[in-house]
Amino acid sequence: MKSRYIILYSALLFLSGCKDWDYDHTFLVQGAQDESENTSNSSWKNQGFTLDEYHIYKQAGMSPYRNDSNSALPWKEANIPAEKAVEYYQKWKTNGVSSEEAVYFISHADATPTQFKQAMAAIDAHYDIINKTAEEEENGGINRKVVIKIIKKIQNGTPANKAVLDYIQEENKKAVNEERAQWPTDILQSCGDIPRSIYTYTISNDSQNPYSVNGKCYTIDTPYQAVKWMSDHQVIIIPMPQVSATNFIYIYSDSPFQNDKVAIVKGVTPQTFTNVFGGDNVIASFEVIGYK
């Protein structure tokens, strides 16, 4: 009987010890969780988030780190209240837009995800004809400022496709005006338009008709052309790169021809020359009206 009592007492002590271990183990796990929570909270605190903001953004699955697509930092820096920021974030996230991008479009155009989606679809449809920087061409992207301009047109009631086409037309006109500003007024008045490179003539169907250049203006980068001097006022030029054996052009200048500059020429009545076989060749002819 005594032996049974000892065994039973020992068993009770063992079970009591297990209970104490379980309690201690739970305490240790809870302590580790608290420490992890404090470490996570400190990351938010170091970025300037309040405890309330931490709980709101944390519950929404957002991050305190700037480079994360789900970062809460852009929203805070834009002074958008946390509850509103989470609402915006959830809507923009479904369109694959990062927090930083979403805040940009909201801050600059008060844009909605739907307007953004419409603008991007229209841009993609007309991407090939949009004027792009070299960097945009290389990366296959488009400047956010362009997207903003198109979004604002959409907000004003313009259909997305028309908004993009209107933007392209405006940019092309702007580019032409900027180019025209670089030319002397007398040249523009004489030519009626911006002189184009002579190469645009030599590769066109017009090169088969020497009369087609009459009254039109071109630039000839003469240092890079094959020049045959007839006199100091007259030259025969073979535009380079040569695309046809008939692309000879005749140039006349009132003053000695300056072969070291870009000549601005205007088409005149074609001149006729006798070739080595005794036949006549009518070739496109120009007079020099200036230099660049």
Quickly list its features:
15% strand, 7-stranded mixed β-sheet, disordered N terminus, 292 residues, alpha/beta
What's the SSE blueprint?
Blueprint: H1 2-46, H2 51-59, H3 73-77, H4 82-93, H5 99-109, H6 113-125, H7 134-139, H8 144-155, H9 160-180, H10 185-191, E1 196-197, H11 198-202, E2 217-221, E3 226-229, E4 234-238, E5 249-252, E6 262-274, E7 280-291
Parallel strand pairs: 1-2, 5-7
Antiparallel strand pairs: 2-6, 3-4, 4-5, 6-7
Quick rundown:
The protein contains eleven helices and seven strands. With 292 residues, it is of the alpha/beta class.
Commentary on this structure:
With 292 residues, the protein is of the alpha/beta class. Among the domains are: 111-182; 194-291. It has helices spanning 2-46, 51-59, 73-77, 82-93, 99-109, 113-125, 134-139, 144-155, 160-180, 185-191, 198-202, and strands at residues 196-197, 217-221, 226-229, 234-238, 249-252, 262-274, 280-291. The protein has a 7-stranded mixed beta sheet. Strand 3 (226-229) and strand 4 form a beta hairpin. It is elongated and about 95 Å long. The termini are far apart. Residues 1-36 have low confidence and may be disordered.
Number of strands: 7
Helix content: 40-55%
* Count of discrete alpha- or pi-helical segments spanning 4 or more residues: 11
Gross geometry: elongated
Radius of gyration: 38 Å
Oligomer: single chain
Characterize the main sheet: 7 strands, mixed
Gap between N and C termini:
122 Å
Q: Overall mean pLDDT score?
A: 81
Order of helices and strands: HHHHHHHHHHEHEEEEEE
Structural class: alpha/beta
**β-sheet strand percentage:** 15-25%
Strand order of the largest sheet: 1-2-6-7-5-4-3
Spans of at least 5 consecutive residues whose pLDDT stays below 50 are 1-36
